[in-house]
User: What shape does this take?
Amino acid sequence: MSERIRLLVVADSGHWKLTWQDTSFPSDRHYHVDPDDLKAAGKDARTKLQAMVDTAKNGNPLGPPLKELARAGAELRKAMFRTGPNERANAIYIKDQHLPSKNDLSLLISLGPTIYIPWGLAYDGDPEALPDNPLPSEITASLYSGFWCLKYRVCTLYEIMDPSGVYKPRANTEIQMLTIVNQQVWQKAEKQIPSDELDAFNASLARSGTPIVSSEEFFKTYKKNYRHIDLLYVYCHANGTSLALSGDDEISVTKFGSNIYFDDREPHPPCLVFLNGCQTAIGTEKENEKGGFMKATGNTGFCGFIGTEAKVPDLFALRFGARFFCSLLYEEKTVAEVMDQLRREHFPLALVYSTCCHPDFKIRRIQTAPVPPARNLSFGSVLVAREL
Assistant: This one.
């Protein structure tokens, strides 16, 4: 089992205070960074990530955009440790001594509701050492293992989330799942799923009823059954603050938070949310939109969400979602283990997904299910119509 360290990121007098916690420290080590500097580096990393996804969609060589992404990730890493002279010793110790000394490390980052940085895209090592144009067979997670989501299995978590219930996993025969979709996109993508993946695709939805196609039906069904819901799966057009089920049926962060919540006076399982649409993990700094989906899925009863850092091709997203739920429901792995496995198996497009939830959420396996065929979903047909 990997060693876990924790990073707390909070706003503090115009700066962001980064506090590193490890049981080996006699006391926490902290320093302050410039939030604008870190946001700019994060934005550039997302831009380079999108360029890589677009290159994959067009069937062009992935080596050049991956090297550009690693360069942006290296700059993001620098911004994470760039601080003033009075606190530089702590930053240097973490960056140059403590992290490099660990062989098997996972990183859990606790955040405020308006802090949205693609931490997993930070890159350790020298990007210039990467090949300029590797063969397709050479484009593997091991070659690009410097990305933090691969090296440190980064998970982020809303700062005040209550993890109660996460360590009492329910059996997959008990799990209740709601699936909410943009019907037009879902049906079109579903028709393009390879025939040898259909059994596993259907198994991934075995604990769900018929997909819900409107916000009205979603809210009504949720309010009736919320005490027993373990998984919420949303597949639709989206951005950092809104989910679009059809042309005029959108669920804003505010509307989501007002309708999808738990009563903390009643017992309920912890609920994991998967927002499988474009840019659902990029959030917003606008307080009136409640900081994106981090806060909306981090309140009482929830354990966070799986989201995306870029626009994601619709067929790739549908097939990736099926792999995710097959692994979670039938392999008895934690969500952090599932995401680590999928990022490696479906590199590089799986870099789009961020684990914004409690890493230890898991489901006990009672029933088994068909195993999806072994293939990297990043290659071949990845989209049907357009991005989600």
Notes: The longest strand covers residues 3-12. The chain has a mean pLDDT of 92. Residues 3-152 form one domain. The chain has two domains: 3-152, 177-355.
